[in-house]
Amino acid sequence: DRWVADIVACAPLSLRAIKQTVNRTGHLSPAEAQALRTPALVKALQSEDALEGVAAFQQKRAPVWRGR
């Protein structure tokens, strides 16, 4: 149950990107999957939620995810 709570606490935008990547790359080789994964990772790291995650960590508070 602890891992479920950990997943639920994550940013919805990141969870969506992970799910899409897994669904799109499950049949590919690791190298092919990595090539498709990189753009999704860059997009997630440039999101407002990524900034919120860093700010929340620095301020020692729970993040408020906005899905952007």
Question: What layout of secondary structure does this protein have?
Answer:
Elements: H1 2-8, H2 12-25, H3 30-45, H4 48-58
Protein name: Crotonase
Family: Belongs to the enoyl-CoA hydratase/isomerase family.
Organism: Rhizobium leguminosarum
Strand content: under 5%
Mean pLDDT: 87
Report on the biggest sheet: none
CATH architecture: Orthogonal Bundle
**What CATH first level would be assigned?**
Mainly Alpha
- Which class best fits the helix and strand makeup? mainly alpha
Alpha plus pi helix count: 4
**What is the alpha-carbon Rg in Å?**
14 Å
As for the number of domains, it is 1
Spatial shape: globular
Question: What is the distance, rounded to the nearest whole angstrom, between the alpha carbons of the first and last residues?
Answer: 27 Å
- Determine the fraction of residues in helical runs and give it as a percent range: over 70%
Uncertain ranges = none
Order of helices and strands: HHHH
**CATH topology tier name:** Lyase 2-enoyl-coa Hydratase, Chain  A, domain 2
Question: Tally of extended strands?
Answer: 0
Task: Give a description of the structure.
The chain has a single domain, classed as Orthogonal Bundle (Lyase 2-enoyl-coa Hydratase, Chain  A, domain 2), CATH 1.10.12. The mean pLDDT is 87. The protein starts with a helix and ends in a 10-residue tail after the last helix. 71% of the residues lie in helices and 0% in strands. It is mainly α and 68 residues long. The chain has helices at 2-8, 12-25, 30-45, 48-58. The longest helix is centred in the middle third of the chain and has 16 residues, at 30-45. It is built from four helices and no strands. It is globular. InterPro entries: ClpP/crotonase-like_dom_sf, Enoyl-CoA_hydra_C. This is Crotonase.
